[in-house]
Specification:
It is a single chain. By secondary structure, this protein is α+β, with helices and mostly antiparallel strands. The protein has three domains: 144 residues, Alpha-D-Glucose-1,6-Bisphosphate, Chain A, domain 4 (2-Layer Sandwich), CATH 3.30.530; 47 residues, no CATH class; 36 residues. The protein has five helices and 13 strands. The strands form four sheets. It has a seven-stranded antiparallel β-sheet, covered by helices on one side. A two-stranded antiparallel ribbon has the order 8-9. The chain has a two-stranded antiparallel ribbon with strand order 10-11. α2 crosses α3.
Length: 233
């Protein structure tokens, strides 16, 4: 089996190189990986659970790094045993090209061989499974290495309202009330902060002598009605 490809990763080449040599990053990125341990500066051992068609097995094996040229390239080779399911062995040439301060292209050329019951499943199934695992690996790897995207929206502690850090800037309009420019015009928060409340509403919600202003209005209205009743008699 042979497989070649490349993946653009939004991270500096040095960071990508360090991640390729980090057991924790590799364990999180390899599909079905149960453990990755460094046994030497240029060697690892790993345990991986693999499902290939109707067969499932756990592989344990050793990995060796050669032709190490940091932070540009290395060759990785190894062999794993999967019990009755068979074995797998091979290697890959990996290179990193710096295409910008925050962009790196990772290229790989894999050559592998499988034996035992796995080989009986056919080259098509083996190739498609290997490609799927490679795609999963690079998706997970890139997610760990590349910085997380920021939305520019700050959440308000203790509420479900999302506010934009800049009230005059364009931003996402959410159901819970982010304020900003939408295709139909400027959208205001449905649950406004106190400093955005209009004067009439602030007066109605204020207090005087420990009683809400609405109560004073009600008392005044009642006195006015009584005054009109007595005046007419």
């Amino acid at each position: 089996m042979e497989m070649t490809g490349e993946r653009r990763i939004a991270a500096p080449r040095q960071r990508v190189w360090e991640a390729l040599n980090d057991p924790a990053v590799l364990q999180a990125a390899i599909p079905g990986c149960e453990s990755v341990e460094r046994t030497a500066d240029d060697a690892f051992q790993a345990k991986v659970a693999v499902k290939l068609g109707p067969m499932s097995a756990r592989f344990g094996g050793k990995v060796q790094l050669t032709n190490i040229n940091p932070p540009e390239s290395y060759t990785i080779s190894g062999e794993g045993q999967g019990g009755a399911m068979g074995f797998a062995k091979g290697g890959a040439d990996v290179s990193l090209e710096e295409v910008g301060p925050e962009d790196t292209i990772l290229r790989y050329n894999v050559k592998a061989q499988v034996g035992g019951k796995m080989a009986q499943l056919g080259a098509r199934l083996i190739d498609s499974t290997a490609k799927s695992m490679a795609d999963q690996f690079f998706d997970r790897f890139a997610a760990q290495v590349a910085p997380a995207a920021t939305t520019g929206v700050d959440a308000v502690s203790g509420t479900d309202t999302e506010y934009l850090s800049d009230g005059d800037a364009r931003g996402p309009i959410t159901q819970h009330g982010a304020e900003g420019m939408s295709p139909g015009g400027y959208v205001h928060r449905p649950n406004q902060r106190p400093d955005y409340v209009g004067l009439p509403l602030r007066v109605l919600t204020s207090e005087y002598l420990g009683m809400p202003f609405q109560v004073w209005l009600g008392l005044g209205a009642m006195l006015w009605v009584l005054y009109l009743i007595f005046l007419s008699t």
